[in-house]
C-alpha cells in the first residue's frame, strides 16, 4: 500500500468520484448501483497508474465490505421479519389500529412522535422504520398524503429516537470515539436535537392540514378496516422487540428471536413449510383484490432486500478504497492544520461528516473519520470532547439518510418504497440538526468548553 500520496492526485480522485456519482445519479437519473461500480473502477485504475497494485486495491475494497457484513445480514433478517409481521397479521393490525385512532389532520405529527418514541425505546432507526414505519407509511398513503412527505416525517422521528437512545449504536460510537461519557453526550445533544425536533414537529403540523380529502379518506379507511382483521397475537412480536432492546440483546440475535417466534406462530396457524419458505424469501402477497390493500401489504422478504444489499456492498467497497488507501486523509490533513478558531473547527467537523457520507456512503466511517481527524484540535482550541461528539452525531451519524447510495438512505428507500431524492426535502430533522450545530458554533450557545462550562449567550 502507498505510504505517501500526492495531494493533487488524491483531490482529482475524489472529484472524479463525486462527478461520477452526482452526474450518474442526479444528472442522468440512473440507479446508484451502476455509478458506484464506475466510481470503484475509476479509483482502482487510477491508483494502479500511481503505483498501487490491483492486489492492494482489492484488499482495501474487501476490508471496506467486511466492515458492513453485520448490517448486510441484518437487512436480510429485516426483510424476513417484515414478511412474517405481514403474514401473521402484526403490521395489518397496526394499520387497522392507526385508521381507527388517527385523525387525518393529526397524522403527520402523530407519525413523527410515534416513530421517535419507538426509536428511543429500541435504539435502532432501522428497526423502527421496518416495523412501525411500514405501518405508518401505509396509513399515510391511504390518507392521501404525499408518500415522500410521509417517509421524511417517519425517518425524522426514527433519527430522533436513534440520537436520543442510550441503546443506539451510532450514539455509543460517537461517545466512544470522542472519549466522552455516553449520558453526558446524550444530554449535550439536546442543545441541537430538541430545537431541530421542535421545528420538525411544527412543520409536521403545518403539512398535516394539506392531506387527502375527508370523504375519500373515510371511504378508503372503511374499506381497509373491513378487510383487515386485527389480532391480539400482534402484541407478542412488538413486545418481544422492546424486551430484547431493554435487555440490550444485539440486533442480529434480537431479530433472529423475533423471526423464530413469528415463524412458529405462522406454522402453527396451519401454513406449510413451503408457504413459510416462500413468505420469508419472496415476501407477503395478499389474496385480496383491493388495490389499496395490495399497495399496503405486498412487500417484505429477503429477495426484496437484495437491491439494497448490492448497493451497500458497492458503497462499502468504494468507502474501503477511499479510506484504506489513504485518499481521504491525504486531502483532509492539510485542511485541518489551517483551522484558526472554535467556529471553524466545528464547521469543519460537520462538513467532513457530511462530505464523507456522500463519498463513502457508510454511516459509521462518516462518524469516526471526523473524530479521528479533529480530536486533538478540540483540545488545542479549548473545546470539550462533548462538542466533538455532538458535531459527529449531527453530521456523520445522520447525513447518511440523505445519500442515495448510503447504507441508511438505501435501506429507508427500500423499506418505505420511496426514493431517497424524493424524501430528502422532507427529512427535516436530518437537514436541521447540522444547521443548529452551526448556529451553536456561531453564537457559542450550548458549545461546551474544555473547562466544563456551556456558553448560553
Write up this protein.
By secondary structure, this protein is mostly helical. It has 23 helices and no strands. Helix 12 runs antiparallel to helix 13. The longest helix has 27 residues. The N and C termini lie far apart (49 Å).
Low-confidence stretches: none
Task: Give the percentage of residues in beta strands.
Answer: under 5%
Q: What is the H/E order?
A: HHHHHHHHHHHHHHHHHHHHHHH
Give average pLDDT, whole number. 83
Q: Count of helices?
A: 23
Total beta-strand segments: 0
Q: Indicate the radius of gyration in whole angstroms.
A: 23 Å
Tell me, briefly, the overall form.
Answer: globular
The helix fraction, in percent, is over 70%
| Structural class computed from helices and strand pairing | mainly alpha
Structure described in brief:
With 457 residues, the chain is mainly α. It has helices at residues 7-27, 33-49, 54-66, 69-87, 90-101, 107-122, 125-142, 147-164, 169-178, 182-208, 214-227, 235-246, 251-268, 273-282, 291-297, 306-324, 327-336, 342-360, 363-380, 385-395, 407-416, 420-423, 428-443.
Amino acid at each position: 500500500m502507498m505510504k505517501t500520496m500526492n495531494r493533487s492526485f488524491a483531490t482529482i480522485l475524489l472529484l472524479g468520484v463525486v462527478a461520477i456519482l452526482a452526474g450518474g445519479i442526479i444528472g442522468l437519473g440512473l440507479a446508484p448501483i451502476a455509478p458506484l461500480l464506475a466510481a470503484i473502477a475509476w479509483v482502482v485504475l487510477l491508483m494502479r497508474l500511481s503505483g498501487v497494485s490491483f492486489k492492494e486495491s482489492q484488499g482495501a475494497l474487501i476490508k471496506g465490505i467486511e466492515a458492513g457484513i453485520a448490517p448486510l445480514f441484518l437487512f436480510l433478517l429485516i426483510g424476513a421479519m417484515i414478511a412474517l409481521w405481514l403474514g401473521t397479521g402484526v403490521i395489518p393490525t397496526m394499520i387497522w389500529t392507526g385508521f381507527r385512532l388517527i385523525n387525518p389532520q393529526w397524522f403527520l405529527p402523530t407519525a413523527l412522535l410515534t416513530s421517535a418514541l419507538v426509536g428511543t425505546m429500541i435504539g435502532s432507526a432501522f428497526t423502527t422504520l421496518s416495523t412501525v414505519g411500514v405501518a405508518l407509511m401505509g396509513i399515510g398513503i391511504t390518507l392521501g398524503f404525499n408518500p415522500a412527505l410521509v417517509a421524511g416525517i417517519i425517518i425524522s422521528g426514527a433519527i430522533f429516537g436513534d440520537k436520543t437512545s442510550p441503546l443506539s449504536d451510532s450514539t455509543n460510537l460517537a461517545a466512544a470515539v470522542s472519549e466522552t461519557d455516553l449520558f453526558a453526550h446524550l444530554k449535550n445533544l439536546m442543545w441541537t436535537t430538541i430545537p431541530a425536533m421542535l421545528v420538525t414537529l411544527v412543520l409536521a403540523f403545518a403539512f398535516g392540514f394539506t392531506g387527502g380529502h375527508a370523504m375519500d379518506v373515510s371511504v378508503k379507511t372503511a374499506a381497509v378496516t373491513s378487510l383487515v382483521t386485527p389480532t391480539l397475537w400482534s402484541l407478542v412480536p412488538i413486545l418481544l422487540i422492546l424486551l430484547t432492546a431493554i435487555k440490550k440483546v444485539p440486533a442480529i440475535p434480537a431479530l433472529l428471536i423475533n423471526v423464530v417466534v413469528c415463524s412458529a406462530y405462522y406454522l402453527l396457524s396451519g401454513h406449510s413449510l413451503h408457504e413459510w419458505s416462500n413468505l420469508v424469501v419472496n415476501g407477503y402477497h395478499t389474496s385480496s383484490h383491493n388495490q389499496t390493500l395490495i399497495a399496503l401489504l405486498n412487500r417484505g422478504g429477503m429477495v426484496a432486500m437484495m437491491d439494497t444489499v448490492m448497493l451497500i456492498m458497492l458503497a462499502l467497497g468504494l468507502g474501503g478504497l477511499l479510506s484504506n488507501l489513504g485518499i481521504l486523509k491525504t486531502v483532509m490533513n492539510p485542511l485541518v492544520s489551517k483551522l484558526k478558531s472554535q467556529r471553524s473547527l466545528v464547521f469543519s467537523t460537520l462538513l467532513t461528516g457530511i462530505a464523507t457520507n456522500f463519498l463513502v456512503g457508510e454511516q459509521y466511517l462518516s462518524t469516526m473519520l471526523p473524530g479521528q481527524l479533529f480530536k486533538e484540535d478540540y483540545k488545542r482550541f479549548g473545546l470539550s470532547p462533548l462538542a466533538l461528539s455532538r458535531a459527529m452525531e449531527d453530521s456523520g451519524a445522520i447525513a447518511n439518510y440523505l445519500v442515495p447510495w448510503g447504507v441508511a438512505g438505501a435501506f429507508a428507500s427500500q423499506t418505505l418504497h420511496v426514493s431517497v431524492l424524493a424524501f430528502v426535502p422532507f427529512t427535516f430533522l436530518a437537514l436541521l440538526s447540522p444547521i443548529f450545530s452551526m448556529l451553536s458554533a456561531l453564537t457559542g450557545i450550548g458549545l461546551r468548553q474544555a473547562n466544563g462550562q456551556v456558553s448560553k449567550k
